[in-house]
Amino acid sequence: MIGTRSFKVCRCVICFILMLTIFFGPCVKCSATDDAVPLSEDTYNTLLNGTTVYNGVDYAKKYGYNPLYYFLNYNDLRIAFGADPAKLVEHYAIYGIKEKRVANAPISRGAHAWGSSNEYIVPSYQKTSKQKDGMVVIPEQLHGNGGMNARQDVEARSIARQLALNIYDQVMNPPSNQQGNSRSTSSNSSNSTPTVPEIKMVAYATGIVQAYCNAGQELTREQVQKENSKVYRTAYGVFCSHRFTSAGATRALGLILDYLNDIIQQNNPGSAPIKWVHVNANTWNQQYCQIACDNHEAYADGILGIAGYGKHPLEGGVEKDIQSYVSYATLSNILNTRPPLDDFGQPSTQDLPKNANPMSGLPGYDEP
């Protein structure tokens, strides 16, 4: 009896104490966190324009610190601080440097059997009409050439490199009648990294590949099954033999993008890389390039001649996001270095049989 009464008294005391704590104690803030970072403003611009200074030291100038890279590279920082540039630079100054965290470039996420060790985590929607947050991982794939022999590879690469050089020059140094439509470079006071209008170059490259495709013949599945050669799925098929599928158009476009990236990095060290993934490779679905461009997700489709930020329209992208980039490529002077037919009505460049390779036997040019 006494024990029961004592238990009731203790329970009442504990309840009374808990009530006092709830009503008069400090507020307890509870929150659930995960890898998603809900924000009310544009993540990219918040970070791109964010401070790089902590306690009077500009870590961008001293260490090449970039708040956007620091945010994208580390999930724990995204969870802890969100897109708060002041907190991010404070963490970098106090802990990040000692922990050897990378804040001046995208970092590796681990090697893959089908690619290199680099993966680029970039915003997916910030430059689209959807204007919402989201990240996507774009791996730096090691791309095959589709089966070109040595001579075909040399010819296709030579054309792709010339086209890339021309694209870079046209975009960075546009003719006087296009000056109003093109801004070659821009800079940001809080970020010393140069910026290049890469999406314009991607769109220009897409328009050129479509021009090549229009000058040739896109093979059907039935025609492909009758072909003895696999050239239709290569850049050579687009640039030289004028017989291709979406696989060849994608590889031709990707080859130009590879050279564009090299040219951009040589002339503008520190610029965002252009990296592409071959979407739907080795299938009969529409194939195109998913791209890390201007530190954002983008796409380019050589067959359809469309390019833009965000997702491909086949993957839920918005068609109106395409127009500004496609119009640039369409109105520019698209180069087609090889006409479809010669003076006798024959293809200007024919796919030579392997045993007729003029470079056969030369060092480095033996057939595979």
Report on this structure.
This protein has 12 helices and 12 strands. It is α+β, with helices and mostly antiparallel strands. Among the domains are: 43-96, no CATH class; 150-174 and 184-356, no CATH class. The strands form 5 sheets. It has a 4-stranded antiparallel beta sheet with strand order 9-10-11-12. Strands 1-2 form a two-stranded antiparallel ribbon. A hairpin with a 2-residue loop joins strand 1 and strand 2. It is elongated. It starts with a helix and ends in a 37-residue tail after the last helix. Residues 17-41, 110-116, 179-194 and 350-368 have low confidence and may be disordered.
Give a quick rundown of the structure:
With 368 residues, the chain is an alpha+beta fold. The protein has helices at residues 2-24, 43-48, 59-63, 67-73, 75-81, 85-96, 150-172, 198-214, 221-226, 235-241, 246-267, 323-331, and strands at residues 53-54, 57-58, 115-123, 135-141, 186-188, 191-195, 217-218, 243-244, 275-279, 288-293, 296-301, 306-309. The protein has a four-stranded antiparallel beta sheet with strand order 9-10-11-12. A two-stranded antiparallel sheet has the order 1-2.
Uncertain runs with pLDDT below 50, 5 residues or more?
A: 17-41, 110-116, 179-194, 350-368
How many β-strands, per DSSP? 12
Strand arrangement, major sheet: 9-10-11-12
Determine the fraction of residues in helical runs and give it as a percent range: 25-40%
Q: Beta-strand level of the residues, as a percent range?
A: 5-15%
Q: How many distinct helices?
A: 12
| Mean pLDDT score | 75
Largest sheet: 4 strands, antiparallel
Radius of gyration, in Å, reads: 27 Å
Principal-axes shape call: elongated
The ordered string of helix (H) and strand (E) elements is HHEEHHHHEEHEEHEHHEHEEEEH
What oligomeric state do the depicted chains represent? single chain
**Derived structural class:** alpha+beta
Spatial gap, N to C terminus: 96 Å
